[in-house]
Amino acid sequence: MTVHLRALYRNLVAGARLALFLPLRAFDFRAAPLDYTLLIAFNFVVWLVAAALRTGMEGEFDAAAPAVYLASVPVALATALVIAHVYRAPERLLLIATALSAADSLFELLALALPWIAAVSGYPRVALVVFLAWIWLAGVRAVLVCAGPRRPQLLGGALAVTAMIAIGFFAFPRTDVWLAPEDEEPAPLADERLFHLQGELIERALAAIQPGRPGVRELYFVGFAPDASQDVFVNEMRYVRQLFDERFGTAGHSIALVNSQDALEEFPIASVTNLERALRRVAAQMNGDEDTLFLYLSAHGYADHRLSAVQPPLELASLTPTALARLLDGVDIKWRVIVVSACYSGGYIEPLRDENSIIITASSAERTSFGCETGRDFTYFGEAYFRNALGRTRSFSEAFALAKDEVAKREREEGLEASLPQMWVGRAIGARLQQPADRPDK
Fold first, then answer.
1. Which segments of 57-208 does DSSP mark as H helices, in order?
2. Is 168 exposed, middle or buried (0-12, 13-18, 19+ CB in 10 A)?
3. Which of 178, 203, 413, 415 qualifies as a cystine partner to 59, CB 3.0-4.6 A?
4. What is the per-residue pLDDT for 438?
């Protein structure tokens, strides 16, 4: 057994030299069947320890996770088989498989620092790409060391390594054997007083919306932030509503619906039902041909263009573009400015656009937006549009142009895929808003 433990030690040292691009020869690896099995078992134990460290040594064992991890072993063996076939060297199959697996435990331990590196650098996606590129280069070097530099065989080996990494990253679900313990604290809304207070909050908020003055063009504000999972949405909604009340004269003409764990005594919950009630109340108080609705939606967005709806312990319906279109068509509001700050929010433009509407979205229908992390006061788009751009101009369309440029610059600097904010301006409302009150401040 001592012989095999020495072989394990030599394989681990060789794996480290492989990953760190130090001098290395093929016979530095020990490739007997039992030695390879011992290496896989050691990597498995390191994976267990790393998973436990990620959860702070707490959590519950996930019995399904080991099967997912061990499924990577035949993938590595199949890759080694392909490479041995390409080089016409079947006797090197186990040597190549050993070299491909020798650095796994090192990479697993180094991955523990990846979230910290990503947070410090400010480029989370770049950090992940660099880490994957490092693993790929180590895999290609394993082929070079164990099978030689012959071409085009080396190219075939590199393609096999690429396929192995792609399968591991995209085909196998990322899972940890230790699941972090769930938060056992009861949801605030489960408190009987807070639950019954919600009825009073929505009634008071609706009653506070005052009728418009005939002959005066006024703006009405409705905010809808249905995701309580992160505080950035409630933080941003507070700022935006105050901005419109103070700068755009919506005091007495505004309502904000927000899901939050900490603001249940401040805002009515953001359910689709409450949104419909708010829109109907606003429509009843507006002068239809004169006043304009500004509707602001902020949440996580999904690829099918639903907005996330989270308010434990309630199970809330998600708002979709077609559902919002039906709500707006069901009320008598002629002039509308709609801003949707969410991933994939460009999907709201087509169902909502008409000649009397401006529709602004934080991203295209196929792209994500950024900045919706806990602890932030604004999303990237919310900060650029509401805090910065609308602080410089009263024009909703000009503010969009300013915000779009600011967001694009920030995303480039952080190495993020462009979110591509979108805007639709209907012909009738575009002409209507070319009034002195809507022009940039001088």
1. 65-70, 72-87, 93-101, 104-110, 114-121, 124-147, 153-166, 192-207
2. middle
3. 178
4. 46
Strand residue runs (E) in 322-430: 335-341, 357-361, 422-425
C-alpha R_g of the chain: 29
Distance CA 134, CA 141 (A): 11
Which pLDDT belongs to residue 261? Answer: 86
User: What are the residue ranges spanned by the domains of the chain?
Assistant: 2-179, 188-438
> How does pLDDT run across 291-316, given as a tens digit for each residue?
999 999 999 999 999 999 998 888 88
pLDDT at position 7 over 90: no
What is the CATH class of 188-438?
A: alpha beta
Query: What span, in angstroms and rounded, lies between the C-alpha atoms of 42 and 180?
Result: 23
What values do phi and psi take at 95, rounded to 5?
Answer: -65, -45
DSSP state of 227: B
Percent of the chain with pLDDT over 90: 51
Grouping H, G, I as helix, E, B as strand and the rest as coil, residue 332 is: coil
What is the C-alpha to C-alpha distance for residues 225 and 299, in angstroms, rounded to an integer? 6
- CA-CA distances (angstroms) from residue 271 to 301, 349, 378? 16, 21, 22
At 205-232, the pLDDT tens digits run: 999 999 999 989 999 999 999 999 889 9
Q: What is the amino acid identity at position 97? A: A
Tell me what pLDDT residue 366 has.
94
CA–CA dist 374, 197 (Å, integer) = 26
* Distance of alpha carbon 411 from alpha carbon 371, whole angstroms: 11
SS (H, E, C) 252-319: CCEEEEECCCCCCCCCCCCCHHHHHHHHHHHHHHCCCCCCEEEEEEECCECCCCCECCEECCECCCCE
